[in-house]
Design goal:
Blueprint (H helix, E strand, L loop, with lengths): L1 H16 L13 H13 L16 H15 L4 H12 L14 H27 L8 H12 L7
Helix pairs in contact: 2-3
C-alpha cells in the first residue's frame, strides 16, 4: 500500500512539474480565444528563460507577453497579426521556431548540410580503405627477423 501511495505521489509531482505557468487571472472567458492564445504562447520564446515558451515560463516578462497576446486577440487580431506585432516589437528571436526566410536560411540548412558533409566524409573514408590494402607484404629482411623471433632465436638488434 505504501508503494502504491509513493508511486501515486511521484506521478502527481511529475504531473505538476509540467503544469503551465498561465495564471487563472490570465485566462480568457471565451474558450476558443483562450485556445488561440495558448497555441500562440507555445510558439513564442520567453526572453528571460530563452529555452522555454512563454506558455511554460513563470518569468514576469513571459506573463506580460501572455497578457499582450490575449490583449491583441481580444482586439480582433489574427494569429499572424499577433505574431507579426511581437516580432516587430521584440525581433525574430521571440519565435521559438524561426521563419524560413533568406536571413534564416543558414539556420535551417546548417544541420542537414553538416549531416550530409559527415556522411560524405564517412563514405569517402570507406572508399579509401577499400582501395588501400589492409596489410602490406613483409620485405625479405622482415620475414627473416619474424621467423627468428617466432623460433626463439633472437638476433641482436642493429
Amino acid at each position: 500500500m505504501k508503494r502504491i501511495l509513493a508511486v501515486a505521489g511521484i506521478i502527481v509531482v511529475l504531473g505538476l512539474s509540467s503544469a503551465k505557468a498561465v495564471q487563472p487571472d490570465e485566462i480568457m472567458a471565451d474558450p476558443v480565444m483562450e485556445a488561440r492564445a495558448r497555441d500562440l504562447s507555445r510558439e513564442l520564446r520567453c526572453m528571460v528563460c530563452q529555452n522555454q515558451s512563454i506558455d511554460d515560463s513563470e518569468a514576469p516578462l513571459a506573463r506580460d507577453l501572455r497578457l499582450l497576446v490575449r490583449e491583441r486577440i481580444a482586439a480582433g487580431d489574427s494569429d499572424a497579426q499577433v505574431i507579426d506585432f511581437l516580432v516587430t516589437r521584440y525581433g525574430e528571436f521571440v519565435l521559438l521556431k524561426p521563419r524560413l526566410e533568406r536571413k534564416t536560411l543558414l539556420l535551417w540548412l546548417l544541420t542537414p548540410l553538416v549531416l550530409a558533409g559527415g556522411g560524405l566524409a564517412l563514405w569517402m573514408q570507406a572508399k579509401r580503405r577499400q582501395k588501400s590494402p589492409a596489410t602490406l607484404p613483409l620485405s625479405a629482411e622482415e620475414e627473416v627477423r619474424l621467423a627468428a623471433l617466432l623460433s626463439g632465436d633472437h638476433p641482436t638488434e642493429r
